[in-house]
Amino acid sequence: MDSTSLEHLRRKVEAGEPLSDAELEALRTAAGNTPGPALRLTVAHALVNAGAEREALRLLESLRRDFAQDVQVRLGLARALLGLERPGDAEAVLREALVLNPGDPEALKVLAVLALRRGEHGRARAYVADVLERDPFDQEARLLQAELEAVELPPPPTPRLQALRPELTAALLAALHRAGVACRRQGKDLLVKLASGEVGRVDVASLYAAYRDGTQDLATYVEGMVARLKGLSGLAVDARSLEARLRPVLRPGGFETQATGALHRVGPAGLEVFYVLEDPEFVHYLPEASLGPAGLSGEVVDAVAWRNLEAHPAPVRPVALDEGQVVLAETFRGLWAVAGGDGYDAARLLTAEQRRRLVLHAGEVPLRVHLGWREFALVCRESDAPACESLARLGSAPDGIPGLFRLDVGTLTSS
């Protein structure tokens, strides 16, 4: 190969361009016929350009043995090691290069890049400064300097100290009492009585989850919650506004002791029907004392509440039980969930549209029903013995309705 062709190949390799098979073979031949490491090192760089780092590494290890004092061989070896995702080994080789040639700019720049990747900005700046002290016009070093300046960040904010749930509950109770809002603990909930006589049930677990996932400190969060609860200072006496928010809910027998003064009636299967005002975060039981000012009767409230719920059926989804937890299933495995997730799913089982949706899945057959969670209602065919046994073994949440029920032609009875 003539010198012009050989120089052309060297320039292509230095520019990072891959060689054709014929060009690489010609370069290998020339390197084999030329003493010294230069052309063999060029072959190694050509292999790295072609993505053949492992072959290049073998050649470069051989060159390091034959030419132990050659800095360029060390730099080529570091490049191959970086291509093989071995930055630690590459850094060791670069330090060997600096021993052979202290202040070598190419080794320092690669070390700066490795430090930058690890987030060691101080060390990277020191390497770059060393290069620029020797050559203020080194373009690669100046680009690295600009990159380091761009990643300079302010110190991270002090982590927010989060209160535990009992601390949140205690702080909220104290703040409500100071604000003159009557309230008390009941299980995991807070019962809040507003000026109108309305009883609001606040799920502390949900409040704590919102606090934990937010950015406010405890005092600010509690202050905001008190302001919101005080803002719910009464029911609209306008019947139309009131009616639009009414929904029925099923509660276990004796629940009137927990929702004192709330309007309710006897429901099916030993349960009771209460009436709530729709709210995405709080449970507002309708006080019986509010009917007169609104010009409503218990019968009207009952009819309106069920009509509203009839217009909002829930999806019916296949579910499975996994170590006592209800999880969505890709295919039907014996259980369905009526899963509106708004606390009304038990009552939905008594609406015509929800029954129609259940028939589409289960057919016109009696169903076994589990109401242990307010977030959904579980059903299975009564004829499916394994599914019924699974429901019988499943427990219930403290605010759920224990026991199993039977749903047949729209009638709910104890199982």
Description:
By secondary structure, this protein is α+β, with helices and mostly antiparallel strands. The chain has 3 domains: 3-150, Serine Threonine Protein Phosphatase 5, Tetratricopeptide repeat; 165-310, no CATH class; 316-414, no CATH class. It contains 18 helices and 14 strands. Strands 1, 2, 3, 4, 5, 6 and 7 form a 7-stranded antiparallel beta sheet that branches. Helix 3 (38-49) packs parallel to helix 5 (71-83). The longest helix has 14 residues, at 53-66. The N and C termini lie far apart (95 Å). The relative contact order is 0.05.
At a glance:
This protein is α+β, with helices and mostly antiparallel strands. It has helices at 3-14, 21-32, 38-49, 53-66, 71-83, 87-100, 105-117, 121-134, 139-150, 165-178, 204-213, 218-231, 239-245, 291-294, 298-310, 345-348, 352-362, 385-393, and strands at residues 182-186, 189-193, 199-203, 246-251, 264-266, 272-277, 283-285, 316-322, 325-328, 335-338, 367-373, 376-381, 401-408, 411-414. It has 3 domains: 3-150, Serine Threonine Protein Phosphatase 5, Tetratricopeptide repeat; 165-310, no CATH class; 316-414, no CATH class.
